[in-house]
Amino acid sequence: MSLTFPNRSRSYDEAGQRIRFVGHDGMFQISFSVAADAMSKMQPGTAADEAGYLAAFDTASSSIHDVARNAYARTRKSIYVLTAADFR
Asked: Closest Cα partner for 24 from 1, 39, 5, 46?
Protein backbone atom coordinates (compact mmCIF):
# COMPACT_ATOMS: atom_id res chain seq x y z
CA MET A 1 0.00 0.00 0.00
CA SER A 2 1.07 3.58 -0.46
CA LEU A 3 1.18 6.40 2.02
CA THR A 4 -1.90 8.62 2.01
CA PHE A 5 -3.00 11.68 3.95
CA PRO A 6 -6.79 11.37 4.28
CA ASN A 7 -6.91 13.45 7.47
CA ARG A 8 -6.09 17.11 6.79
CA SER A 9 -5.62 17.95 10.46
CA ARG A 10 -2.31 19.30 11.67
CA SER A 11 -1.18 20.92 14.88
CA TYR A 12 1.60 23.13 16.09
CA ASP A 13 3.91 21.79 18.80
CA GLU A 14 5.29 24.93 20.43
CA ALA A 15 7.73 23.09 22.68
CA GLY A 16 9.21 21.16 19.74
CA GLN A 17 8.89 24.07 17.28
CA ARG A 18 7.23 21.90 14.64
CA ILE A 19 3.98 21.15 12.87
CA ARG A 20 2.63 17.64 13.37
CA PHE A 21 0.51 15.64 10.93
CA VAL A 22 -0.20 11.99 10.18
CA GLY A 23 -0.20 9.73 7.17
CA HIS A 24 -1.64 6.26 6.70
CA ASP A 25 -0.21 3.17 5.07
CA GLY A 26 -3.17 0.85 5.08
CA MET A 27 -4.13 0.43 8.71
CA PHE A 28 -0.82 1.84 10.02
CA GLN A 29 -0.61 5.45 11.18
CA ILE A 30 2.69 7.21 10.49
CA SER A 31 3.56 10.35 12.51
CA PHE A 32 5.28 13.25 10.78
CA SER A 33 6.43 16.66 11.87
CA VAL A 34 7.98 19.53 9.98
CA ALA A 35 10.46 21.76 11.78
CA ALA A 36 9.24 25.35 12.01
CA ASP A 37 12.47 26.66 10.48
CA ALA A 38 11.82 24.48 7.42
CA MET A 39 8.42 26.16 7.04
CA SER A 40 10.08 29.58 7.18
CA LYS A 41 12.52 28.59 4.45
CA MET A 42 9.78 27.09 2.27
CA GLN A 43 7.49 30.08 2.71
CA PRO A 44 9.62 33.23 3.19
CA GLY A 45 7.80 35.84 5.22
CA THR A 46 6.05 33.26 7.39
CA ALA A 47 5.01 34.76 10.71
CA ALA A 48 6.98 33.03 13.47
CA ASP A 49 3.93 31.96 15.44
CA GLU A 50 1.36 29.16 15.45
CA ALA A 51 -1.02 30.82 12.99
CA GLY A 52 1.81 31.68 10.58
CA TYR A 53 3.31 28.19 10.61
CA LEU A 54 -0.08 26.50 10.16
CA ALA A 55 -0.97 28.83 7.28
CA ALA A 56 2.38 28.09 5.62
CA PHE A 57 1.78 24.36 6.09
CA ASP A 58 -1.66 24.62 4.48
CA THR A 59 -0.22 26.51 1.51
CA ALA A 60 2.57 23.97 0.96
CA SER A 61 0.75 20.82 2.05
CA SER A 62 1.04 19.08 -1.34
CA SER A 63 4.81 19.46 -1.48
CA ILE A 64 5.13 18.58 2.22
CA HIS A 65 3.15 15.39 1.63
CA ASP A 66 5.39 14.57 -1.36
CA VAL A 67 8.52 14.97 0.80
CA ALA A 68 6.90 12.82 3.51
CA ARG A 69 6.09 10.10 0.96
CA ASN A 70 9.70 10.12 -0.28
CA ALA A 71 11.07 9.87 3.26
CA TYR A 72 8.71 7.01 4.04
CA ALA A 73 9.59 5.17 0.82
CA ARG A 74 13.30 5.25 1.76
CA THR A 75 12.92 3.96 5.32
CA ARG A 76 9.59 2.69 6.53
CA LYS A 77 9.53 4.02 10.09
CA SER A 78 6.60 5.08 12.22
CA ILE A 79 7.89 8.57 13.13
CA TYR A 80 9.59 11.22 10.96
CA VAL A 81 10.86 14.73 11.62
CA LEU A 82 11.27 16.60 8.33
CA THR A 83 13.85 19.38 8.34
CA ALA A 84 14.85 22.10 5.88
CA ALA A 85 17.38 19.66 4.35
CA ASP A 86 14.48 17.42 3.24
CA PHE A 87 12.99 20.27 1.17
CA ARG A 88 15.65 20.83 -1.50
From this structure: 5
